[in-house]
Design goal:
This protein is of the alpha/beta class and about 230 residues long. It has 9 helices and 5 strands.
């Protein structure tokens, strides 16, 4: 039996991340671990995009898809958001992959495929909006404390990433989130969907930090905070 074949696509948001390996190293480590543990074949070359997730112009992604078509391979990415968090972009990509007969695999969401990409796109878009809301809330709180803020043009991708990292760290330190994580991790290892895990959490009496019932998206958010 021939091993599964994959063409790998990476993306980092800035030239600084591309030069330093920040973000890229974690993606490569996840991909290498998957390929080795599953005895899969990587079809060279891999393709690395240095571009904001907001930009739909992705020449390296197009090359990766063409390579998949040439070799009958699956497009492999470390995380879904390395494609994009933009719903329109992901919907268009889904149509393009289906028309080309190319499947894809996201290591953070192994059940995702071209048929479920629309659902995943909606979840990713929601996460993007939440990040934006948290960043704005943080800036407003800083302004209320009298903290001098930089000019808008200085609010770089790196600054936004730091704000998101701070929010994620605080969430991880929350006791209710940590308790939920220890329940989520083994269930996810068993292959349960986000919806089933959310249902079990609610049945066991777990609640979110704000005291609400768990939804599939909130389970995914916690999982990403501890594994991203």
């Amino acid at each position: 039996m021939k091993p599964d074949k994959y063409v790998v696509y990476y993306r980092v948001s800035t030239k600084q991340q591309g030069a330093s390996g920040l973000g890229l190293e974690a993606q490569k480590a996840a991909v290498e671990s998957f390929l080795q543990s599953n005895k899969c074949e990587e079809i060279p070359p891999s393709f690395t995009e240095i571009e904001s997730g907001k930009n739909g112009n992705r020449p390296q992604l197009r090359k990766a898809i063409d390579r998949c078509k040439q070799t009958g391979s699956t497009l492999l990415i470390a995380k879904l958001d390395r494609l994009s968090r933009n719903v329109a972009f992901l919907f268009n990509l889904r149509d393009e992959l289906q028309a080309a007969g190319v499947d894809f695999r996201a290591l953070d969401l192994p059940e995702a495929n071209t048929m479920t990409l629309a659902i995943m796109a909606g979840m990713a878009q929601q996460e993007r909006e939440l990040i934006s809301e948290r960043t704005r809330a943080g800036l407003q709180a800083a302004k209320a404390r009298g903290q001098k803020l930089g000019s808008p043009q200085n609010l770089t991708d790196e600054a936004r990433a730091k704000a998101h990292a701070s929010t994620s760290r605080k969430a991880r330190e929350d006791q209710s989130v940590r308790h939920a994580w220890h329940y989520i991790k083994p269930l996810r290892s068993e292959g349960l969907s986000w919806a089933k895990i959310a249902s079990r959490l609610n049945d066991e009496g777990y609640r979110t930090r704000t005291g609400k019932l768990f939804q599939p998206q909130s389970v995914l958010n916690i999982y990403n905070r501890f594994t991203g």
